[in-house]
Amino acid sequence: MKFNKSFFLAVAFLSFTFMAQAQRGVRIGYIDMEYILESVPEYQEAQTQLDGKVQRWKQDIDKMQKEIDQMKLDLANERVLLTKELIDERDEEIKFQEAEMLDYQQARFGPGGDLLIQKRQLIQPIQDQVFNIVQEVAVNKKYDFIFDKSADVVMLFAAERNDISDIVLRSINRAAKRTQASSKKDKQGIEKRDALSMDEDKEVTERDNATQAKKDERMSLLEKRQKERDSIRAAKKVIFDERRARLLEERQRRKDSILAARNGGTPPPGPPPGENSDGDDGDGGR
Predict the structure, then answer these.
(1) What residues does 147 pair with on adjacent strands?
(2) In angstroms, what CA-CA distances link 88 with 84, 154, 237, 285?
(3) Are 30 and 163 in contact (CB under 8 A)?
(4) Distance between CA atoms of 188 and 59, rounded to whole angstroms?
(5) What DSSP string describes 99-141?
(6) Which long-range contacts (CB under 8 A, 24 or more apart) does 180-188 make?
(7) Cα dihedral across residues 95, 96, 99, 101: positive or negative
(8) What is the number of other CB atoms lying within 10 angstroms of the CB of residue 153?
């Protein structure tokens, strides 16, 4: 089994450092960069956009591959009918298309390709922010070492009490909220939350989440009731419109009956047969 030389050097250095500082008690913490990134809304949104691009690139490659496969199939079916020059020409065209597809794959997914560049652009700003916050936490909390759990250095055991990922994430979220805060009251509320310990902040967050859940439930109930009211109102309107139409029809029949009685039992005069109401003879002007 092969091991990375840098891993052994890292382990040797850490072992030496721990032994040297064991007398005074070493404070160690770690973060999980993957957890932090997945919990930042801006990163999630950008990642969704990147996933969409990746999907389109894969579709482009699939389309190219299908075209190449079709060209190969056509050549196999027509080979007996073609001259050597035409076969060579078709082979050359297939090779050209394959080379183009490979170039496209490398440009999108290869080392230094678009996927790697855009991932780096996506992650770098948040990594820089995490790095700065980790420096602050390390100084304020007097940590000697802080590792990234998701990096290459293998952590065979890590006690949860040493995980400061939530502290870092909390600082990132606070910074975002401070930027978005528009009123003095909002800013004061954020500063108050900053002064809380992790446990206190967790309790407040749980209470806020419970309150929000109740609000959402209440809103959902109100929306459901509103839909029911709208449905009943719509049904009543249909019944009202039908009743109104019947009343109007009845009223019109009574008017026609009265008019017929006044005219001696004959229906009211209308246009002569073959003529419409505007005096035309109904033959379209012929």
Answers:
(1) 30
(2) 6, 54, 76, 73
(3) yes
(4) 50
(5) HHHHHHHHHHHSTTSHHHHHHHHHHHHHHHHHHHHHHHHHHHH
(6) none
(7) negative
(8) 14
CB 138 within 8 A of CB 44: no
The answer for 284, left when phi > 0, alpha when psi is -120 to 50, beta otherwise, is left
- The whole-angstrom separation of Cα 10 and Cα 68 is 49
Cβ–Cβ < 8 Å for 155, 32: no
Is the Cβ–Cβ distance between 103 and 17 less than 8 Å? Answer: no
For the stretch 137-174, pLDDT in tens is: 888 888 888 888 877 666 656 667 778 788 888 887 77
Share of the chain above pLDDT 90, in %: 23
At 46, the amino acid letter reads A
- Pair 240, 247: CB distance under 8 Å: no
Encoded tokens for 43: 């990163």
The answer to whether 14 and 144 have CB atoms below 8 angstroms apart is: no
- Positive or negative torsion for Cα 224, 226, 227, 229: positive
Tokens of 210: 């419970």
For residue 246, give every residue at least 6 positions away whose Cβ sits within 8 Å of its Cβ, in sequence order, or none: none
**Helices marked H in 22-79 — which ranges?**
33-38, 41-78
pLDDT value, residue 75: 93
* Per-residue tokens: 45: 């949104």
Radius of gyration of the chain (CA): 39
Structural contact between residues 181 and 190, judged by C-beta atoms closer than 8 angstroms:
yes
- 227 band by pLDDT with thresholds 50, 70 and 90: confident
Using H for helix, E for strand and C for coil, what is the string for 198-222?
HHHHHHHHHHHHHHHHHHHHHHHHH
Transcribe 219-278 into DSSP letters.
Answer: HHHHHHHHHHHHHHHHHHHHHHHHHHHHHHHHHHHHHHHHHHHHTTSSPPP-PPTT--TT
Q: Which two tokens stand for residue 211?
A: 């309150």
